[in-house]
Amino acid sequence: MPYQQQPYAAGQPQPAPYAYPQQQYQQQGPAGYGYPPQDGYGYPGPLQAPPAQGGPNGPSGPDWQALAEDNESARRRRKRLWSIGAGVLALLVVGGIVTTTVLLSGKGDKPVADPTPTAAPSPSETLPSTAVDVLSDTKYDTAPINAAALFPQDQITVNGRTYTRSVTSNTKLNHCEEAVTPDIGQILVTNKCLHIHRATYTDGTLGITVAIADLPDKAAAGRARDAGAGSVLSLTATKQPFCQNVTCVTNQAVYGRYLYLTVAGPLGNAPVPSGDTSASQAARDISDYAQAILLARGQQALSTLQQGGASASPGASASAGASASARASASPSR
């Protein structure tokens, strides 16, 4: 049954209402926290300020000097990182350019071949540097040689004087003695002369035959010249022979591996008169022409050699050696 409070009788003392025991609190510690002291009720004690810590925020406030130093250190670290990053980026760009260049220069791993390869001389090879040097060695002097190639013009002008070509001729291989007098013929055979190519020019009163003897090297040509014997036989194709068994003017000179000879005298086979200068002048003119022919041949060969990968020495002149030692003399022609 529900509990019901019984009324108290009149005059009886009524018990005091139930209440928690009252307790007196005394304020302890710093005022304003509002917590009782720790006496068993489970409340914490008075709040205490945390101990002071070292660093930029000390007991008296922030350490601005330390903060500035930290900020400067961080800025320097960022700058170093940017520098390193830029360097790496530059290396990657250069590497990419090199790689691209390599890839563009050839397909795959196959090298790109020169469409017109030329044979390069060996590093230890001594190369000709002048026209006369080229004509001193059959290794470099390889152009075809014959009378038609050497004497192509019907008419020439030398030192202001005009000469007309009348006839040309070539000896067979190793038969140089057929185009010269016997004394020099034997010398040419001994020095292994290959061919003699001849042409005759006239000026109306004089006949001049020039011969270019093709020898194996410069030394052989020099030996033939130094012998100083004989002359080329005059070559005629008309009824006006010249220099046959009469006194005529002769020249001999060397250019490279070539010995060139001239003989000049009056048409009709008359001897050269004593004190005459016209035959000597004509012989020198045609001798100069022969040298010019050989010089042009040497220059052409040198140019071809240089274009093929060889190089001439600095300051080398194609005319070096052009002042060949010519010898003019009056001697009987047979």
Q: Please list the strands of the largest sheet in the order they lie side by side.
A: 3-4-5-6-8-7-9
Helix count from the secondary structure assignment: 6
How would the global form be characterised? Answer: elongated
Unreliable sequence segments: 8-12, 16-43, 52-57, 88-119, 309-330
What kind of oligomer do you see?
single chain
Helix and strand succession?
Answer: EEHHHEEHEEHEEHE
Characterize the largest beta sheet: strand count, sense, and whether it forms a barrel. 7 strands, antiparallel
What is the total tally of β strands?
A: 9
Beta-sheet strand percentage? 15-25%
Query: What integer value in Å does the Rg equal?
Result: 59 Å
Percent of residues in helical segments? 25-40%
pLDDT averaged over residues: 73
First-last Cα distance? 182 Å
Secondary structure class reads: alpha+beta
Description:
It is a single chain. With 334 residues, the protein is α+β, with helices and mostly antiparallel strands. It has a domain at 131-307 and 321-333. It is built from 6 helices and 9 strands; from the N terminus they run ββαααββαββαββαβ. The protein has helices spanning 64-105, 131-134, 147-150, 182-190, 218-227, 278-307, and strands at residues 57-58, 61-62, 155-158, 161-170, 195-202, 206-214, 246-255, 258-266, 327-333. Strands 3-4-5-6-8-7-9 form a 7-stranded antiparallel sheet. It has a two-stranded antiparallel ribbon with strand order 1-2. Strand 5 (195-202) and strand 6 (206-214) form a beta hairpin. Mean pLDDT is 73; it is low at 8-12, 16-43, 52-57, 88-119 and 309-330.
